Amino acid sequence: MDSDEEEVLLLLALIDSPVKKRIWIHDINRQHRIHGEFHTLYPRLRLDEDRFFKAFRMTTENFDEILNMIKENIIKSFTKYREPICPEERLAITLRFLASGDSFRCIANSYRVGCSTVAEIVDEVCDVIWTTLQPIYMKPPTEEMWNLTSEEFYNMWQFPNCLGSIDGKHVTIVCPPNSGSNYFCYLKKFSVVLMAIVGPHYNFLCIDVGGFGKNSDGGIFENSVMGRRFNNGTMNVPRPKLLPRTNDVTPHVLIGDEAFRLQAHVMKPFNQRVSRVDRRKEEYNKRLCRARRVVENAFGLLAQKWRIYFKPMHLKVSSAKKVIKATCVLHI
């Protein structure tokens, strides 16, 4: 048998061999509207406010309010191949992911949809939640807002002229490909940093998301947009004013821990060796640390509400940023 005959036989064998075709919709997912969690469990949860809150970390009223605000941006068109997932189910899938921290595979099996479909829904809906709600609930700071925050900090935490408490939270992620040690932090894990200014009621006033885990909190803040705006005087900070019951005119400041550099708009505790021998400095440290704890408490409340923070995020860095921003703007 010559080489030409061998080539012909080989081509015939390839033509006759069965080709495994890709399935457009898996048989399990075809039962989406019969056995899917959205069509079976979700209607029953809406009848029990307590269970609904535990499942989605918000009331049915809040759910419907958010849905009405974003549904026009997450609705999909009908095609002749398949019926799209409705906006209400897309929001339910996203909140289920944020509230439980379950994997895409687990949620896909529960809702009878594809795993890649869940990933796409979470990425898109989180982005829409941020772009829609941020201008309403996390507006750019104004002088009036800073003045109100300062008064509330003094009334609640007895720290005058305070604009907010600042700190960074390392959000654990799976090591991004080809990232080297950029995201490897001192906690011996890979992370992106959520830098936040928090008000006296544990509310997020300003955030910056995506700093490398290897960088310090102080460096991330100074290189962030809000840090640069504080430095160049474009953050609408009120003019200095008198401290209560004194004639001392002092500027308005943020309060942080030792990781931040002492600046005109940032105050930090005195070194312990210095404060131990000076009662006034020790009292100052106590006041500052008591007021500064609101940012630590806010991070704790954020993680307790959205359990996605309890596990490493198996997401691209871009998607992880969208998830973090969405949870912050949903945080109350």
Automatic annotation (TrEMBL):
NAD keyword on record: no
Subcellular location: Nucleus
GO cellular component: a single term: nucleus
Keyword annotations of the record: Hydrolase, Metal-binding, Nuclease, Nucleus
Domain DDE Tnp4: 166-331
Record GO terms (molecular function): hydrolase activity; metal ion binding; nuclease activity
Entry's family note: Belongs to the HARBI1 family.
Protein name: DDE Tnp4 domain-containing protein
